[in-house]
Structure formats: C-alpha cells, structure tokens
Amino acid sequence: MPILKNTKLIVDSGYQGIQKNHNNVLIPTKKTKKNPLNKEQKQYNRLVSKMRIIIENIFAILKKFKIITEKYRNRRKRFGLRFNLIASIYNLQLLYLT
C-alpha cells in the first residue's frame, strides 16, 4: 500500500528502515551498549510514545468490532465504508461521553 508523501507516520522502534523510503516519520531513538540515550533523546522518545499510545488505544477500541479483527469475507470495495461506519460509531461515543 503506497504512503502519501505528506502523511506523517508515528511508528515504534521496529520500523528503523522506514526512514529510507519516507521522510516524514516520527520514530523513537534506539539505544545501544556503546551509545546510551542522552536527555534530549529520552524526552523525544517520551513525546513519540505519548502520541502513539493515543492511536494504539483507539485501535484497541475499534478492534472490539469483529469485522476488523477477523478475516474479511465480504466485497473488498465495501470495507472502507464499513470501517468508516465503525469509526463514526466511535466518534459518536466520544461525543456523548465527553
């Protein structure tokens, strides 16, 4: 799946090679035995983690719908519509709970 050039990616440290193909990436800095992280790098990692946890929590809520977690057996072109409906249900839930 191609990634649009103006899309910002927030990924974990397992995606170290993605910076070669995509410039707009927020990725935590990895420490090594020879190069421990300095204060700024640790602060940057915390910032990226704070952004990622929000997204991960939303994915966890969306995965409560079996259509997202299990193998999709319907027409492919309708998956986007169904995913948008699930996202709308989530947004309505946010609206009424806050």
How would you describe the overall organization of this protein?
This protein has a two-stranded parallel ribbon. The protein has two domains: 1-62, no CATH class; 70-98. The protein has helices spanning 39-62, 66-69, 79-97; strands spanning 9-10, 25-26. The two termini are 35 Å apart. By secondary structure, the chain is mainly alpha-helical. It holds the Pfam family DDE_Tnp_4. It comes from Spiroplasma poulsonii.
Task: Based on the model shown, name its key terms.
two-stranded parallel ribbon; 4% strand; 2 strands; 98 residues
Q: How many DSSP E strands? A: 2
Number of helices: 3
Give Rg in angstroms.
18 Å
Strand order of the largest sheet: 1-2
Described by the principal axes of the CA atoms, the overall outline is extended
Mean pLDDT metric: 86
Report the uncertain regions.
none
Task: Write the topology of this structure.
Elements: E1 9-10, E2 25-26, H1 39-62, H2 66-69, H3 79-97
Parallel strand pairs: 1-2
Quick rundown:
48% of the residues lie in helices and 4% in strands. With 98 residues, it is mainly α. Strands 1-2 form a two-stranded parallel sheet.
